[in-house]
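Hi everyone, sorry if this is the wrong subforum. Our group has a chain we'd like a structural model of before ordering constructs, and none of us has done structure prediction before. Sequence below.
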Amino acid sequence: MSRADQREARPARLAVVALVSLGLVARLAPALMMAPDGTARLPGARAALALARSLADGRGFALTEEPEGRPGAPSESPTDGQPQSAAVPAVGPAGPGVRRAPMMPAYPLLLALAEGSADAPVRPALVVQAVCGAATMVLAAWMAYRLAGVWAAVVAAALLAFDPFQVLFTALVSPVTLAALALAAESAAGLVAVEAVRTGRRAWPWVVAAGLAQAAAAYVAVWTLALVPVAAAAALVSRHRKRLVAAWAVATAVVVVALAPWLVRHPVQGGAVGRETHRAEYLAGLAGAGAAQEGGAEPAEPTGIVAGAVGRAGRLWSPALAPGLEDGPLHPAAGYTSLVPAALLAVAGLWALRGRAEAWWLLGPAAAATLWHAAVGGWPGDRAAVLAPLAALAGAGLVAMLGKNGATTMSNKE
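Answer:
Right subforum, don't worry. Here is the predicted structure as tokens:
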């Protein structure tokens, strides 16, 4: 980089540091100030807390489903109004109940490690989430820098710094923030790997790193595994098909090896990977607009396979507030002021960089989330976990629209 480029890059780098710092403060504030009884408002939060209590008490990573009135059945706590589920030993039969691990283990493990704080057991986990959110900002800025220079990094950091959903999720019991960090790490490693393949350089260290990050994401949220077939399809249609398919095979092997302890353990435990025991909390996310009414039936899915898939994918990307957030601190227009601008700028970035395979790679997490939700369903708030690579593309898009190249990009320099 020339001295002129360095002089131009310095204020942009300072701006990135300032934005990340402000973003960290913006995340720490609600994480430290949120009332404990308001942190478990999202789908899956109660199951995560129940598993964390089971782990912290040494009773294993599984819950027991029992008919109402039997030991082990979920019941309402007289103190906090949250269901308490009895856990069972880590190995062996659980009596008449069905033992299940209702979600992947990474997030309940984080909550279990935070159980040592007597006054506010969840608070340390929320602080960790705030730090993870800031780390996700750094990775997004770094990806944007590699794509289009330092000013693209500023835009990417700015889009995530005060995004209302990113900030709020750090103060709630939800694996979204951890999943976002893991997917951002995978996107960053994959971006460098694809660059290396495109330019004929050594790619395997970054391929292995991407595989490890994918496994980490899967340990947080099982839906992130949808990125594996998405990456395979992208490799098959690429101009660098042979090397990219080989890289995909190596990364997939790393994922399988890293997930092997869970895949071996799970049949012994008798659970269903990613199965949410407290299904009532997911009714709105899986079945359509509006929360399930007490004592009522589930909202009906659109008739037809295609219509149902389109409806579920549409709910994922709807700017409307996801179920569980309607009565929270976010304004109903929050999605229109954060998701919509980022998505439009990401499209502009993809168009500006349409000849570079790594730009298309950054669409992978969003495509994977869409594929999973269309096929299986899920909570619409999952889209927050894939916004970091989109923010990197958005930074490149705005830089291209303004014609400001900033400093030389890393990928071109190398």
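For your construct planning: Strands lie at 63-65, 75-76, 83-84, 98-100. The first helix runs from residue 3 to 33.
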